[in-house]
Batch of 3 targets.
Target 1
Amino acid sequence: MSQRSGTVVIAILLLMSAGDLWAQGCSMCGSTLENGDPLATSLSRSVVLMASMPFALFLTVAGWLAWKLRRGRRADPLEGEEA
């Protein structure tokens, strides 16, 4: 095994083992803030923003693909006809 692939394997193992610690830190951050605190409101909005980005990206790509598919279907019947 080369040194680079060994480093990648070690990095992946370290990242997988630290998942529980990251989840605990995230829940602790949210539970220490009070409801009326402006920092709590900002934290809630940032979580919603981060959670919505994958959906926005997926919908953008899906919309583009649907547009390309519909545009391609409109052009196909004209190609097969001879004048």
Target 2
Amino acid sequence: MRNFCIFVLFDNQNCTMTELFHLSTENHNGEIFFPRVPKTAAENEDTITPRICFAPSFEKCVLAINPAGDCCAEYIYFVHVPVDAKGIHIPTEAEVPDVDDTDEVWICSPVELKCIGKAVVTYSMLQDMTVEFVPLSA
């Protein structure tokens, strides 16, 4: 995977470096996103904390959005990175039960998004998932 944007995340135990991605069905390049409780939050997820959800890979983003997928379906998402990440929160299992699978990260303050391309997500008959990244033309 090609590196596009690197942010340093700090938690209480480690200093880790990772990329953060946000997928959307619309291009939000240059827009400021404000934290909110996602409409798609699962019943057993935190439905109180406003946030903007990110993950360290396109695949992990897809797992957070559509974990089961639909057989023989294709989805196209715009891939965004945060321009300046502040108010980063790494949710616990109590907040997001599948956080160990998705590595979901929340940004809990307004953030500008930069669109870097599209992710074409395809599910096969066997429920295998492939993700192809298509960068934006310069």
Target 3
Amino acid sequence: MQSTIQELIQRLTSRANSDSSFASLLLSDPAAAAASEFGRLPAGLTVRAQKGANGEITVTADGAGDAVEMTNEELESVVGGDGFPGPISLP
């Protein structure tokens, strides 16, 4: 899970430093910004962002993500699906 948190931090940081409207959202409401980028995050995961003196945005994340794996429902929502659609009929 730790690498997943690092990937989340890197993705949010990269987008914030290249998209000023996303950066504003991330600084004012980090949870909403993360949700807009990833969908639902694991319960207990806290995302924080701050702007440094050099103008770069730094993102940190901590909480339940250190020891808790995502449920199947959480994984499905992140990948944009709600499960396998069932059998596919081909003509």
